[in-house]
């Protein structure tokens, strides 16, 4: 009550440490989360220094601080082996403790939060390692210090080391270090015993046998040096005791790893096989299948993402999706039997589903395996594959086979739903694209992208720049009609535009997480497409992201966009050019669009998919 900073205390009986951390972070409103443990005392400038990297560079994901071990009176404690030594820390490999760390809420969500399936300890090590696997920019700020009230006796410190290591044993992290410690301890024990035995025999037998311990000395020195390297420090008695406690704790945790694994699978809400055309990190990470997979992960599912084709567009972005409950494969590399063996008990513990996005023959064995294991199959028709989009891989016979094996049929556009209905004679559910409204949030502040051109105002297009549907002539007309504006195009540009314009800017492909900033500093969003057989059956995903950022949209008259608030439908290119100016002048229908986005985000789509899937399973 006396604090100038408002506190909110959340209680959940029976929650472990990981669950408690996640509960607090879920309730936090900020984009950056600073963590400190109860019982730690931050120095006066701790928070200021810890968050400074985020203010200097918006791309920073994690900032690790430091901690000092102190006794109850604040006096320094120097238990070698209990706390790492700052001078021996390498910033690039440092694993921060959650008693002094800051990270973005987006990064926390991307790795699934803290592992609630662990019994008690080891949650922050596991979480930090998952953040490392996710990648991105990190900062190490040793000046951001908290004082940690450490165990004040050797026995209490040994007990703490033992308990910490149980969590590592349950998760299996750092196993190679623990086995290295164990081998070093065993080796020291054996050599010590042999040296003692040699000395004892020398004393008993006398004479030249007294040289035995001396002759054995080089072996002991070599063993000492090897042990020092394995233990990471000089193997004095206290260090050896701490390492022994850690090994015993790891072994204790390892013995119950199967039980903990079952607990982990028990938390999983379902196992989904997402059978996509392109890898999860292609197209800037913004494809429909990627969005579905990420939302499934967020809602507590395990996702196996299998792609048929190689990555085409996102090689230069270096995107990485790393989540404990995500596995990614090319179909050529996926083996059902191996997956089952590597995830014992998972198949038997959860509901199975397969979502098929591309009707390719290579996916049929996976579909059959899911069905044989009691799972359900959804065929999600996202494009008319009988057009040029199907290329040389499309086979109507394979698509019909997949339709027959599917329990639920969905389509992203009315024309596709009609096609599926005609082919199957069964109910087809219309499931258009949607938006990640946690990422595309108009209420947040975004730093202005450095490559966004200066202009009186901006119109923007984000999306594919290939195919017979893109209207390059319309794009040039827009640039000519509004020379004071910057026409910003974000996508995989490889010189497709037939002519150049001084106000036409191709910024290249961007990661989806970067798009809200570009939209925030734009005025009008456009869909410069021709109206043809392909676009009539297309649900433009980017329209939902435009609207979520409260940007008016001017688009051609394609059926999936009719009736959407904030979208201005035009009949021809002349009307398209005129409506750009009108879209800037008209008041944006915030209330209507907000209501539309509330029912057209990926969270809502996954809830619908789950309902369709599980309803199908009970009928």
Class computed from helices, strands and strand pairing: alpha/beta
Dominant shape: globular
* Average pLDDT: 90
User: Largest beta sheet, briefly?
Assistant: 7 strands, parallel
Q: Unreliable stretches, pLDDT < 50, 5 or more residues?
A: none
Cα(first) to Cα(last) distance is: 56 Å
List the strand order in the largest sheet: 8-7-6-9-10-11-12
Oligomer: single chain
Number of strands: 18
Helix content: 40-55%
The Cα radius of gyration reads 30 Å
Percentage of residues in DSSP E strands: 15-25%
Number of helices: 21
Account of the 3D structure:
This protein has 619 residues and is an alpha/beta fold. It contains 21 helices and 18 strands. Strand 16, helix 18 and strand 17 form a beta-alpha-beta unit. Helix 5 packs parallel to helix 8, helix 6 runs antiparallel to helix 7 and helix 6 crosses helix 8. The model has no long low-confidence stretch (mean pLDDT 90).
Question: What's the quick description here?
Answer:
With 619 residues, this protein is α/β, with parallel strands linked by helices. Helix 6 runs antiparallel to helix 7 and helix 6 packs across helix 8.
List keywords for this structure.
619 residues, alpha/beta, seven-stranded parallel β-sheet, 21 helices, 16% strand
Chain-wise SSE layout:
Blueprint (H helix, E strand, L loop, with lengths): L16 H11 L4 E4 L4 E3 L3 H11 L3 E11 L30 E4 H6 L12 H12 L2 E13 L4 H18 L3 H31 L6 H20 L5 H19 L1 H11 L3 E6 L11 H11 L3 E6 L18 E5 L5 H7 L3 H4 L2 E5 L7 H9 L3 E6 L14 H10 L2 E4 L2 H11 L4 E2 L26 E6 L9 H10 L3 E6 L13 E5 L6 H6 L3 E3 L14 H8 L4 E4 L10 E4 L2 H13 L4 H9 L3 H17 L1
Parallel strand pairs: 3-5, 6-7, 6-9, 7-8, 9-10, 10-11, 11-12, 13-14, 13-16, 14-15, 16-17, 17-18
Antiparallel strand pairs: 1-4, 2-5, 3-4
Helix pairs in contact: 5-8, 6-7, 6-8, 10-21
